[in-house]
Model the fold of this input.
Amino acid sequence: MKNRPADPKSEWSIQGIPVASGIAIGKAFVLEGVHVKIETKNISASQVESEIAKYHEAIANIKKQLASDISATKRRLGEENAQIFDTHQLILDDPMLEEDTINAIRNDLRSAAFAFYCVLEKFQSQLAVTDQEYFRDRAVDLRDIRRRVVRSIQGDKTDFLQSLEGAAIIVAHDLAPSDTIALDRHKIMGFATDLGGKTSHSAILARSFQVPSCVGLRYLTKYIESGDRIILDGVKGMVIVNPLPETLEKYHKKRKKVDEIKFQLSKLKELPAQTLDGKDIELAANIEFTDEASSVTTYGGRGIGLFRSDYLYLARNDLPGEEEQFREYRKVAEQMKPWPVIIRTLDVGGDKEPRNIHIASEENPFLGYRAIRICLQEPDIFMPQLKAILRASVYGNVKLLFPMISNMAELYKAKAMLKDAKEELVKKNISFNKNIEIGAMIEVPAAALITDKISDEVDFLSIGTNDLIQYMLAVDRGNERVAYLYSDLHPAVIRMIKEIIAAAHEKGTWVGMCGEMAGNPLATLILIGLGIDELSVSPMLLPEIKNIIRATDYKEAAKLAEKALSFSTAAEVEKFMLRFMQRKFKDLIF
Ligand code: PEP
Ligand code: MG
Done:
């Protein structure tokens, strides 16, 4: 198999980073990025009327698609999230826009696409000067509409989610939450993106759809078109374009095998995640959307170890209020009862760019205004969330988790604000669980090194390896160019985790792990051996991890962890674990 397409129409393949296992074979559907190729064409007078007709037709088309996006989003994410499209509708209904575009076609003899593009450009630059704040909030919408209308006029259908006829493998430069949430789950066979590392937001978003996915495929979208036949190998993290018949045959067999393994593993659903010598490991799941809660139980998870509340805030123009959040949290709490639901307070910033919270442009967003740092400085955002979580706590086993704690002052302040939130509820006679457990994420190396002090202040800890690793190893978690340096099996990472668990246990504090390392089958035995209390993984990984736990002797795992700690490099640890796992779990997908 060739590596880069000498001829993009013959078979070629590209290696990326696997993020959700399984094999998908089907047609590619390329979601275009924010850039649109615009034909800067002038027309003759005789073409004026047909260009105006093209413009009207495109607007009518986009309105139809918008209506369909709105109903898909309502179905998937609820009424409020569909408001993301309100501005789109307003723009499309603006009579000025129509008048100016038609004038530009008629008077300046511009093609419909070029005319609309120029009018919107002018509109945007006027807005940028006159109303900075409004412009900032609307810039994404304006860009989106411009892209959609221009593409529709030019007859390029590849951008339209609705033109996805039948199931397809989504191929994109990156996955923006706003592009992704409206997609119809049933039509998606897999995700493949140019950008992203194993723990970037695009990878996490793709995994929430529970289909085979890979990221970091660098230049895939450059050489692929919608309709191309592809194989997505989510086990190896590879995409094969225009496969030859013999490749297809090989992959049909491989898919059958993977599906069979998945089916066998699904039988473990009702069984406990207990080692052979009787040690219980709490096995829970991470969710991004409320509607994922049902898949946690489907895959045999006992609770939610991380509810990323961030997605309630993303891809919308306004902030979710206390009432709306309360309804969402309550739904999940009731559904999971009696199992725990750990709701993490807002963690945006970094690679999760909100439209509704102003974050000035930063040189280093991952080291900047992010997560708890935003919440502590903006009580108008934080207090409604705290109250919503507290109110939901009477409907199930709800716990509250603070992200990105890097020093004690932040933790003290977060707790003080939580106390204020409780007092406000008491004053209003609104009930909540007065003993709600609170936890801190250990995802900053500084926090890891003061685990003992943090343990004194909280009921539990959750290790966020996605960030912990990027900060420890100085490797941007979302940058595919340095992804080879990002390793959860780096001896420094394993040592750090050992220290965190030991320091927490010394204080009698429970420690879970919600970073992606918890779902890496090569790390499972090491983590058990180091004494982790809980693993919280993407729902589709639950059966595989449970299978490993159930086939393991805790004492054996402790020895393996010791051995892993003796190596000097991540490659040595990986080789050692791979060999061990392949011997022990012959049929597993590694
Ligand atoms: C982590 O950093 O490990 C984590 C679970 O949080 P997120 O991936 O949302 O940053
Ligand atoms: Mg994190």
Q: What stands out?
A: The pocket of phosphoenolpyruvate (ligand 1) is lined by residues 199, 306, 308, 347, 443, 464-467, 514-515 (CB under 6 Å). The domain at 12-34+160-244 is CATH 3.50.30.10 (Glucose Oxidase; domain 1). The chain is about 45% helix and 15% strand. The two ends are 21 Å apart (CA to CA).
